[in-house]
Design a protein that fits this description.
Blueprint: H1 2-24, H2 28-46, E1 51-56, H3 65-68, E2 70-75, E3 85-91, E4 94-101
Antiparallel strand pairs: 1-2, 2-3, 3-4
Protein name: DUF1093 domain-containing protein
Length: about 110
C-alpha cells in the first residue's frame, strides 16, 4: 500500500511540474492573439497611417500570462522619442495601455 501511495505521489508531482512548465513557457499562439488585438486597437485609435511598427515586448519576469505578453508600438505624431514605444497588453481580453519603454527585450 505504501508503494502505491508513493507512486501516486511521484506521478502527481511529475504531472504538476509538467503542467507548470507548459503554462509558463513561451506561448506563440497567445502572443499572436495579443499582437492582433493590439494592432486592431491601435489602428482604430490612431489610424493605420500613423502606426509605424509593432514589436514583441515579452517580459519573462511576470508570473501572470497576460502581463508577460506585451506589444510595443511605434506611433507617428505622439511625441515619442526616437527609440520610445507605447506598451500595450491584454487584461480580461481587452487592450490596456501600460506605458512607454525605450528598450525592447532580446529574444533567443
Amino acid at each position: 500500500m505504501k508503494k502505491v501511495g508513493m507512486n501516486v505521489l511521484v506521478a502527481s508531482l511529475l504531472l504538476g511540474g509538467l503542467l507548470f512548465y507548459l503554462d509558463v513557457r513561451y506561448d506563440e499562439r497567445f502572443e499572436q492573439h495579443v499582437s492582433t488585438k493590439v494592432e486592431t486597437y491601435v489602428e482604430k485609435k490612431y489610424g493605420p497611417a500613423r502606426v509605424v511598427s509593432l514589436h514583441s515586448a515579452y517580459d519573462d519576469k511576470q508570473s501572470d500570462k497576460e502581463k508577460r505578453y506585451k506589444i510595443a508600438v511605434k506611433v507617428r505624431g505622439q511625441g515619442l522619442q526616437k527609440e520610445e514605444y507605447l506598451l500595450y497588453r491584454l487584461q480580461d481580453d481587452r487592450v490596456v495601455e501600460v506605458g512607454t519603454t525605450t528598450s525592447l527585450p532580446k529574444r533567443n
